Every structure is written in structure tokens, then in C-alpha cells.
Amino acid sequence: MQIIARCPRCKYNWLLGEEAADRRIKCRKCRKLFKVPKLSDVPKAVKVIKTAKGTIYVDQNGNTYA
To answer: E strand or H helix at 49, and its extent?
Structure first.
């Protein structure tokens, strides 16, 4: 499974592996450090993510997009 994280400063989207969940990462574009949320922090999305066969995007409000 892959996670798409969006940098809060430059708004650039990054494709990350699931091991990035609940970690702080540095944006490769603007170098800002930001945290990728735990999957349990977005309960509504967890069910969708676990059954997804492709890439899922979860925004800051917990909305999921496939």
C-alpha cells in the first residue's frame, strides 16, 4: 500500500510507503519537516485503506480518495 502525503508548506504531494505512517518526514522539495498521521488517527479511512488494492489519498480532514 502507498500513502500520498501533502506538504503543509509547499502543498507538494509525495508518494510514500506505509512505513511512513506515524513518522516525521522532510519534504524533498521545500525541506519542511512534517508528520504523516497514524492510520488509527483517521478511523474512517482505515477500513478503506486496509482493503485498497491501489493508492489511497487521505486529506487533513480525513476524507479519502482512491
So the answer is: helix 43-51
Separation between Cα atoms, residue 43 and residue 25, nearest integer Å: 22
Higher pLDDT, 52 or 14: 14
CB-neighbour burial class of residue 60 (10 A; exposed 0-12, middle 13-18, buried 19+): exposed
Question: Kind and range of the H or E element at 58?
Answer: strand 56-58
Q: What is the pLDDT of residues 34-63, one digit of tens each?
A: 888 887 776 666 666 666 666 666 676 767
Residue 31 in this model has a pLDDT that exceeds 90: yes
CB 29 within 8 A of CB 11: no
To the nearest 10°, the Cα dihedral for 11, 37, 20, 57?
-60
